Amino acid sequence: RKHRSRRRNRKKHSEAEEDSGILPSRASRIKKDEEDVDDENEIVEEFEGRAVIRAERDRWVGIFQRLRHDGQIHATSLTQAMQLCGHDRVEEADTLKVLKQVTQYTNLNEDEFMRFVCLFEIHMEQSYREH
C-alpha cells in the first residue's frame, strides 16, 4: 500500500510540476514527438538521384561507425554493412561491382559509404527486375 501511495503522490507531483511550467505539458511532449517523426522523414541528402531521409542517414552513419577502421570502411566489410542495412541476400560480387562505381580504392569514407548504399540499392532493384 505504501508503494502505491508513493506512485500516486509522484504522479500528482508530476502533474503539479507540469501545471507550474517546470515540466513540459503532455500536449507539448506529444507535439515534440510529432516534430521528431517529421524530422526523421525529412529529406536531408540525395545521392545518385535517390532521396535520403534523416532516419536512413542516421542508421547508415551508425553502421558506418560500427564497422569503420581508421575512419573508413573496408571493402571486406561491405557485405556485412549491407546486411545491417536490411538486405538479406548480399553477394560479395555485387558489393565489389558497386564499389568500383564509387572509388578505385578498397576503403570508403563516410560520404562515399552513403553514396555506395544508394548505388547498391539501385543495383539490387535493377537485378530484381531482370530476374
Q: Which overall shape is indicated by the principal axes computed on the Cα atoms?
A: globular
- Strands, total number: 4
Low-confidence stretches: none
H/E element order:
HHEEHEHHEH
Number of helices: 6
Strand order of the largest sheet: 1-2
Radius of gyration: 23 Å
- Measured between the Cα atoms of the first and last residue, the distance is 66 Å
Question: On the 0-100 scale, what is the average pLDDT?
Answer: 82
Layout of secondary structure:
Layout: H1 2-20, H2 26-40, E1 43-47, E2 50-53, H3 54-67, E3 73-74, H4 78-84, H5 92-102, E4 107-108, H6 110-130
Describe the 3D structure.
The chain has 6 helices and 4 strands. It has 131 residues and is mainly alpha-helical. It has a two-stranded antiparallel sheet. Strands 3-4 form a two-stranded antiparallel ribbon. The protein is globular and about 55 Å long.
Summarize the structure.
By secondary structure, this protein is mainly α.
What distinguishing features does this structure have?
131 residues, mainly alpha
